[in-house]
Design a protein that fits this description.
Blueprint (H helix, E strand, L loop, with lengths): L1 H13 L8 H22 L3 H11 L4 H13 L3 H14 L4 H13 L3 H14 L4 H14 L2 H14 L4 H14 L2 H14 L4 H13 L3 H14 L4 H11 L1
Helix pairs in contact: 3-4, 4-5, 4-6, 5-6, 6-7, 6-8, 7-8, 8-9, 8-10, 9-10, 10-11, 11-12, 12-13, 12-14, 13-14
Length: 244
Amino acid sequence: MVTSLFILQDKLAHKKMKVDLAIIPSLSLVVIVFAGATYARNTVWQNEFRLWSDVVEKSPFDARGRYNLGNAYNHEGRVDKAVEQYEGALKLKPNLAEARNNLGNAYSKKGWLDKAIEQYEGTLKLKPNLAEARNDLGNAYSKKGWVDKAIEQYDDALKLKPDYAEARNNLGSAFNDKGWLDKAIEQYEDALKVRPDSAIFHYNLGMTFMRSGLKSKAATELKAALKLKPDFTGPGRALEYMSK
């Protein structure tokens, strides 16, 4: 808008038309107003927490805004605040599947597994093809010790999204829990084809090789994990144990 006013002034000048000098202070005022608005908006946009706090403050009945503010709180590790926003979003829009799934994740972080499972199951009623919800439900089942049910969910997630590396890694861990080491190794290796930069995947594969008595392969994977994440203490301890 400001640019347009200056262009208009320039055109008028070229046509040798008299421009009222009063337009100059007017333009200056417009510039100041817009600069102030831009600065304020940039301050809000500095991070997602400020952005979505601003959205919710101005539109408290915006379910999507509350969902995103919940995500911002979650990223900051403020789980209780995240729960509050997700629950608020679902009161406004009960069929917001992503908010329901993320509420399940927040409940899981707090150790409320039954409540988390309820939210994941509710999410899947709304979106049965949401692979992330099936993976998250599998994780909750696994934490409850329901390994067979967890495997079913990971399998379903991978049918929906074959390159879902996290679900494949989790399936490997479930197989590990069952003592099916060859099947676990296969899943970890497939997960690493998608995410070769994952220290966790290398570590899980290395520990399974070690459990299988394949020390050389175990060392290779544990060293890879340590190279990717030097502050990861697990691989270092495992390597030290094997060297004894």
